[in-house]
Amino acid sequence: MRFPIRPFEHVPHLDFMRWRTFWLWSSFIGGLLACALLGYQGLNYGIDFVGGKLIEVQTAEPAQVGMIRQAVDSAGFEGATIQEFGSNRDFIIRLPGNNAEVQKASAEAGVVAALQGKVSAVELRRVEFVGPQVGQELRLKGLQAMGISILAILIYVWLRFEMRYGLGAILALVHDVVLTIGIMSLLHTEVTLTVLAAILTLIGYSLNDTIVIFDRVRENRGRYPNRPLPEVLNLSVNQTLGRTIMTVSTVLLVLVALFFWGGEVIHDFAMVLIVGTALGTYSSVFVASAVLLALEEWYQRMGKEDAKRQA
Questions:
Q1: Between β-strands 52-59 and 90-96, what pairing exists: parallel, antiparallel or unpaired?
Q2: In the listed set 104, 130, 156, which residue is the last one of a domain according to the structure?
Q3: Is the CB of residue 98 less than 8 Å from the CB of residue 81?
Q4: Alpha-carbon dihedral of residues 201, 204, 210, 216, nearest 10 degrees?
Q5: How many domains, the chain?
Q6: What local confidence, expressed as pLDDT, does residue 33 receive?
């Protein structure tokens, strides 16, 4: 039986390349703003990367973050970060690893004792500790993982297509990662190993749509060798548009469900993937093809200039 609703049954005829300059400049300005925000505000690294102790407590009655912070400061743990964890009775207390008292096994007991005198009965739910040296090593390994992933992608696309395709894919990928990290800085998202895993997942997903479009571009260039490249790019993006929208819609349905009902543990993971998936879809449709066209035009100009010099 045929389904009554068949979206994208016919290929649309949208002129994406007409606004390619606008897409490129918008992405460039967005990247600059994200870099400026990172330079000014930085990232909110979790104890996975800076070291320290994470203590999760639950109070018998609702409490204020200010009351929790005052109690923790009075116990000698200055510089702690306090955050509500799902409700006004659950709190995450992050003690920085540069405090010698934090490294003692009695640190969490001291925090609980201080809270008992300020708020209602307190239950210790979870304790995690990461040494400062381990945190620095994890941060370095995380950056190495991102760098190796991007380099491997460049080599793969270069071997499968051409260098200009690889550069277009990498620039679109860097656009996605930079803007996603900029939004994380704006929202003070805590950077943990789980969030790093989300960014690495984003790198693979963002490339997926770009490869599909580039593969269609290569097919259409062989099928229509006399057509101008902007027309071929428009045709290729339009032919894959239905597949792109349906794919991202199903992915976002899962991520939105995880964001709202998956619990606080994977809340940031889902949020980063939602933002990254939206940006990855945007860059695959609008940015990657525009970059490929700009690179192709630049290669053609260089070829003509070389031919004139040889003549």
A1: antiparallel
A2: 130
A3: no
A4: -130
A5: 2
A6: 93
For residues 35 and 178, give the distance between their C-alpha atoms in angstroms, rounded to a whole number: 7
Which of 99, 130, 161 is the last residue in one of the domains? 130
Tell me: do 200 and 253 sit in the same domain: yes
Q: How far is residue 40's CA from residue 288's CA, in Å, rounded to a whole number?
A: 29
- Kindly state whether residues 151 and 89 are assigned to the same domain: no
Measured between alpha carbons, how far is residue 75 from residues 5, 85, 98, 112, 113 in Å?
64, 21, 16, 9, 9
Q: Containing domain of residue 162, as a range? A: 17-45+135-310
CB 96 within 8 A of CB 102: yes
Q: Are 139 and 236 in a shared domain?
A: yes
**Residue 285 and residue 241 in contact, taking contact as beta carbons nearer than 8 Å:** yes
What are the distances in angstroms from CA 29 to CA 26, 190, 289?
Answer: 5, 25, 18
Residue 213 has pLDDT above 80, yes or no: yes
Which pTM does this prediction carry? 0.76
Residue 143 lies in a domain: yes
Q: Which residue has the tokens 């018998």?
A: 60
Pair (125, 197) in one structural domain: no
Q: DSSP letters along 101-153, please?
A: GGGSTTHHHHHHHHHHHHSS-EEEEEEEEE-HHHHHHHHHHHHHHHHHHHHHH
Give tens-digit pLDDT for 267-293.
888 999 999 899 988 888 888 888 888
The C-alpha atoms of residue 212 and residue 165 are separated, in whole angstroms, by: 12
